[in-house]
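Forum: Protein Structure Q&A
Topic: Joint prediction for protein chains with partners

I've read a bunch of threads here and the consensus seems to be that you should model interacting components together rather than docking separate models afterwards. I'd like to see that in practice. Below is the full input, 605 residues plus whatever partners are listed. Could one of the regulars post the assembled result?
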Amino acid sequence: MGQTVAQKIVARAAGRDTVEAGDYVTVSPDYTCCQELAWQTRKRMMQEIGVDRVARPDKVIMVVDHTTSAAMGSSYHVNHREMKDFAFRHGVDNFFGAGSGLRHLVLTEKGFARPGLLVFSDEPNIASIGVVGALNIAVSSEVVATQIADENWMMVPKSARITLDGRLPFGTLLRDLAQILIRDYARTDTLSQSCIEFVGPAIAGLSLDERQSLLACAYHTGADTALMPVDAPALAYARERAQRRPFHLLESDTDAVYVHEAAYDLAAVSPMVTVPPELHGAVPVEDVAGLAIHQAALGSCANNRLDDLRAAAAILRGRRVDRAVTMYITPGSRAVYAQAATEGLLAVFMEAGATVLAPGCTTCWGYEGVLSDGEVQISTHQMNYHGRNGSRSARSYLASPYVVAASAVAGRIADPRPLLAEPARAWQPREPR
Amino acid sequence: MTTRISGRVWKFGDNISADDGIIQYSQVPSLDTFDIPALKAMCFAELAPRFRAEVRTGDIVVAGRNFGHHSHQHACVAMKECGIAACVVESTDSAFIRKALNIGLPIIVCPGITALVDQGELLEADLATGGIRNVATTAMLCARPFSARMLEIWCAGGFASAMRRKLLPAKE
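Posted by a regular:
Agreed with the consensus. Here's the joint model:
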């Protein structure tokens, strides 16, 4: 029977010719990647095992991304320090400290995520590395302990295939499609324990940043993970960063088995807003437009890449964030931050009255940008449940960078299309006063 | 060692979130450590206010589709510390199964389970065979059996103990 890309990746890591969906296998992942927020549980696991040893330090990637600075009153400075010490003690070269960016971006930008590789990480949203045909498998407190013996068990995911056709209409982004998919699937278990393979003619027209935006949201459809075919732009990106480290170009066999297949026409997508507190609550922006907001946040592994910042800048250029709104913008990595500076995006954000934070997860899980009772936020974050960003009586609406930026300007949830359609006024740096 | 678990059922519906259902992750006092009394106090508190007072060691959680989505391990710790011996669910995600198994709590995916058993009934689950049985009605379903590795982890009481046994047999 034919194999999907995901099955081929797992089979290689398991030292087998083929694997079937649902098989339990022992694999040697190509990398294991962890963050600092849950460091104490990772450390305790090592202590309980009683082994202070790492079989393959070259496979370990440690990233401080949830807490971009060790703030007064938080205990996370201890985790920063202990992770750094662990890395140095065990010869782990790939330690990335506070402000480096999210694991998702570090993995792709530094060329760890490469076609055909298996990555064990501590987060399902790292499926964004599927943009270069790498497979993310989310594990848990054993993410570091996996490296004691360079092996762990996993279940081979089922495979599902979603075909994308058409072109996104004006004013929409792939984030809108992600919210539609979550609306359609999150209450079912159609995609449960599966890897979604996104395919189809639309993908060629999507930037790598946009593709990662969709992949990073795939988990919320109920799937375990996701990936995309490695086309010429994806391969060029991966090859440039691989620096002669190996990778494996794989394709799904024509007779591979998919437990579910569906097709989406991007031309039918419109700007969406997901209404809290659940993830399936996506509605057209028109349904909630006009609701006053207190905070707007652009960031999270779903929308913190250059194209996301460019989208926000397309609206914010020459405009001001409403005075009732606090706006946070969080680039996903140092490289994104630097390029945003080069392109003048940071100046656009400053002029608009937004705050640019250090690269990291921060506002998405409520480390910064904490909401008070009754406040309303619109963001590109991943989650919207009660209390995710502070008070349990605050409400967090989710949307694309366009919708978030337009709402920040309007002071209320707003359709981005009229602002995008207006000819952008020429932007001039203000004279120093 | 037996691989059979039997216990009284606590039954929940579909789409029980780990972070805003099993517990309230936003209300966890410290994310760094597992604050056991706090986690026990919030376990299923919003969904079943009687749970905290009436749960007994060895009880089994039965739930519908998408149990424990967006799972932080705190939800697993909360259930385990309340005495839950196993969860048998229509569906969940693979990461949640790992998070629970790592602390010795088995989650069994068993389509049809919500029709098999009701609140308060006695359920029997055999991890090695996948057999799931309503003790009163004797109706049975067959889930995917745990692998030998998963059974090792469960028998040892968690990932760390299983790993320690494997790596340091002389010390045991």
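Chain B has one domain: 4-171.
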